[in-house]
Queue: 4 jobs
Job 1
Amino acid sequence: MSEWDAYADQWDDDERVIHYSQQAYQSLTQAINCDGLTILDFGCGTGRLTELLHPQAKRIVAVDSSAKMIGVLAAKNLPKAEPLAIDMNSGNSQPMHNAFDLIVASSVCAFLPDYQASLALFRQLLKPQGYFVQWDWQKEAGDPASGFTAEEIQAAFDQCLFKTISLQQAFTMQQGEDEAPVIMGIAQKRDQTG
């Protein structure tokens, strides 16, 4: 049972979740033409981003470790979506190697136990020249809060043989009295030599 299961029933009604997914979708489609792509929505939750991408995509594999979140998505009956409740970091992704044009991870990577190991896995799952896009809370150097600095994402992309296409603040979210910035990283799979 995933710790996220408890949030599944109310997730789609949360205004912050709705706003975050809409902003992520808008920033994605301004940067990448998603028409006809095979997409992996990693850490998809109840599939708010999957729903937005569904009309354009050729196929979306929507993966989350929370079976209850995936159950909410499955009930939406999106014909081009394949909801899967699996932990991809436990070796369940072998059949999907070199399968995707695009992998998206919306507010997920900061929660991963090993961000770089997950990036290395995403690289294996992407087709040549495929794209990886992440959105996470942006933090300043030395800040203990959850999230990433641009430098941390850049270093991880470099280490895992991704070419950085863009790394910038994509939008902000209201957090109490403050505006919290969300950083968007877009990277492209490169070959071992390039």
Job 2
Amino acid sequence: MPMKPLEFDRRYGELDQVISAYLGMPADDEPDKPSEALQAYLRHTWHTRPWALATAETQLREYARNPPGRLRLSLGEFYPVPDVGLPESAVQDWLFTIADHIKASIEAGAVPPPSAPRTHWEWHARFPELGQFLGGWFSQDMPDEFTDHDAAVRDYVDASDPQLVARFTGELHELLALHLDESDYALAVAELGMEVDPPQPYGPGGWLAWVAQQLGEPRADYGPPLQGD
């Protein structure tokens, strides 16, 4: 029978995070050079969950040492590694190579310097609520659902928990702190799911700055008026 979530996380949870970083990216790791996908995983994880790196190294190595057979995969008892563009015979060595890179990074304390995300996975791992906002409220259907961009922003704020709005605002400021070129902000919003152009006369970076300014002040909820007010 399929594994329960707790068992899955204990055995494959961080392995799944590593493999997810490769979706849409080449699995071209070499013993002397980690792939762009693995570099993105290392960069993000070092700065957010450094303790998870050791778990990833262990789970990768254990999976490579004990690859599941087809029957147990079909029964849902093992994690099925998605197709990463490698022949099945090469997956085991590839997993060992990834584990070796992660181990070397941990032992050397090689924390990557902060930088802008470089892969689709890294954009969404670093800016999850911004991705929810852009992908959910600014898809190609946005002009049919809202009168303008401001209305979509107001709808997001009204429909979302204030704590999520605060997190989103923080992610906005973090993205703006990267001081990207306007073309790079265009890439950022596209990676995060925006499918419409920003409103005139703004470019992507200018519009994000405007949204951040509008959401900069927290909205206090003072409750119902006191009797006699």
Job 3
Amino acid sequence: MRSLLLSVYKIFLLPHILLYKRSNNKSDIDKDIDRWALAKNMKGGNVSLLLTFLAYSPDFRSIFYFRTRSLLSHVLNIYCRKEKYFRIDINTKLGGGVLTGHPYSTILNANSIGENFYVNHLVTIGEIDGKKPTIGDNVSVNTGAIIIGDINVGNNSIIGAGAVVVKDVPDNSVVVGNPARVIKKDGKRVRV
């Protein structure tokens, strides 16, 4: 019965394919789909996977609607709702391959966020006095982390749960704590 309901729901999702096909951000959406499919161990064509992720995941819909901003996106959001507590600032440049882990009460407000970004719930990436962070590629931000101000988070970095990041984070680092401090750099422990 559930698969029948899902099949019927996917029919209502068909207009999303038009948004996907006509989007200027189609390559980023493809990267999102690939990353989600890998994380969920799913196979299929991009259109089929897109419909599945739209059907099951309000946070995927939030990312999709962010990438396909239009009047049609707003209309489709009426019956295919995005995650209302997951916000992406309209001015944030968001690279492809975004993956979320239940991003409830998460705000992404950065100059830019690179490719293959992972974010969990209760995360705030925000500004101080109009100055926003810049996040590199392959960065993971875990539960409850806060990244604010005119700072850079380097490529391949991990921001630990509850970390408060107010200073630059070098590439290939793991940071934890309040205030955040580097505990690993280039795979090696750092003396604190």
Job 4
Amino acid sequence: MTQGNSEQEPITFVDNRKIDPETGEIREQAADNGAAAEPAPPAGNGAQQTETLADTIGGELAERTADLQRLTAEYANYRRRVERDRKAAVDAAKASVVTELLGVLDDLDRARAHGDLESGPLRSVADKLVAALQKQGLEEFGSEGEPFDPTLHEAVQHEGSGHDPVIGIVMRKGYRFGDRVLRHALVGVTDGVADLAETADRPTEEASDVDADTNDR
């Protein structure tokens, strides 16, 4: 039995006490539960992840900025279109009202031609009405001596050859509101000064040719 006991492994004791019985100090442990501390990740991986995250954020920011710019441009175009449509509607309404008053202006022109607007309260009313309509944008056209324009004038009679037509007589004034022609002017067309001068010179030239032929004979 003594030989058998001598061949057994020796018994060892591990002192797990946290306080040293001799010194009374707390013992330091290398690691919790005997596990070794894990090594810290390499510094290069963290920098690469930060760079990738920055690229992702930068791309998303650029995309959101482009969307915002596109929405801003669309809204600006929408506001301009609405403002243009609103102005066109207002101008159309004004032109409609002014067109209804053209007959009144014709009556005032006839009264002025007969001398009925030389003095009195009617003259004041006529002047205020014309001034108010002109302030809104009404313009009259068509007067004697102006070049004939078929887009503005309607010729009801014509005298002369018609090479340089001008307005000879105005039978009814024309009116426009901004760029819109409300009514064409009724006019009589005649030849311009250049055509009249050319016509006047022709007999003199023909007489000179006749005299030259006579002298040659």
